[in-house]
Structures are given as C-alpha cells and as structure tokens.
TrEMBL record:
<feature type="transmembrane region" description="Helical">
    <location>
        <begin position="63"/>
        <end position="82"/>
    </location>
</feature>
<keyword id="KW-1133">Transmembrane helix</keyword>
<feature type="transmembrane region" description="Helical">
    <location>
        <begin position="94"/>
        <end position="111"/>
    </location>
</feature>
<keyword id="KW-0812">Transmembrane</keyword>
<feature type="transmembrane region" description="Helical">
    <location>
        <begin position="131"/>
        <end position="153"/>
    </location>
</feature>
<keyword id="KW-0472">Membrane</keyword>
<protein>
    <recommendedName>
        <fullName>Integral membrane protein</fullName>
    </recommendedName>
</protein>
Length: 164
C-alpha cells in the first residue's frame, strides 16, 4: 500500500513534529545540565533534575515512540522502503542508541540523580550520574542532528541488492 500525497504529507508532518520534540527535549536537558553544572543552589539543582525526570517519563518517551512509528510507516507506505537506501539504513542504525537512551537512560539517570540529591548522596556518586547523563545527551544530540542531515541530503543512493 502506498499513500497518496495528502496522507503522506500529514504523516511526514507528524514525523517531523515528533522529531522536533525529541530535539527540543534534548536541548532542554542540555540547558538544565549546564544550569546544574554552574549552580551551587541545591533547590535549583533538585528542581532541574525533577524537570528532566518528568520529561523523561512523558515527552521523551512519547516523542521517541511517535518518531519511530511514523518513520516506519513512512518507509513502508512510500517509495523509500525500510532497506532500499543507505541513508535510511543509517537513520535506522542511529535510532537504536536513541531508543535505548530515551526509554531507559534518561529516565534512570535523572531518577538516580534526583534520589541522590534528595538523600544528600556522595558528591562522587552524583558526579558519575551527571557524567552519564551528559554523555547520553551528547550522543542523542549528535545522532538527531545526523539524522536530520541524512533526511535532507539523502546521501549514498540506493542499496544495490534491492531490486527496483
């Protein structure tokens, strides 16, 4: 089944919106992490982790599932296919770490940091959690920017083993 132009545009619009929300979430995480790193205010730090944890339970998960589902539907219901083009395969490979980081990492790390702050945990433990969170945020931002670029430039052409 191939979509006609109007349903395809609606599905593409939904896909772009979900992806934009994912990027916005990670920019928010980045800004809150910078705030935490530059603050001595315990209440501000705790609130920042609270906001990140709330986002990880709601918007991060919803936008991740929304982007993946609409991306798969776009691939299946349009000429692009799931494995016909190298740029789509590259996006699929970049989706794997984002999926894991969004559904597990962001939730776990923000919960752990929030609990450590509440219980006046050891500074070394909080530093480790902050470092893990920073790594996750950076990986996601780089992956998302690469996927946006791949979607725009569509490099590398068609996969040779797939028939036209």
């Amino acid at each position: 089944m191939k979509l006609s132009i109007t349903p395809k545009r609606w599905l593409l619009t939904a896909h772009i919106l979900f992806a934009a929300i994912m990027l916005g979430n990670m920019v928010t995480f980045l800004l809150l992490s910078i705030t935490i790193a530059n603050s001595e205010n315990g209440q501000l730090i705790e609130s920042s982790y609270q906001v990140m944890h709330l986002l990880s339970k709601t918007s991060v998960k919803a936008s991740t599932f929304g982007t993946i589902i609409t991306g798969i539907l776009l691939s299946i219901w349009t000429k692009w296919g799931l494995f016909k083009f190298y740029w789509i395969i590259a996006k699929e490979l970049l989706t794997i770490p984002i999926f894991a980081l969004n559904l597990w990492g962001m939730y776990y790390w923000t919960l752990q940091a929030f609990e450590l702050i509440e219980s006046s945990g050891a500074r070394a433990d909080i530093f480790i959690v902050q470092a893990e969170l920073w790594i996750g945020i950076i990986i996601q931002l780089i992956s998302l920017l690469l996927m946006f670029g791949l979607s725009v430039f569509k490099p590398w052409g068609r996969h040779t083993t797939v028939s036209k």
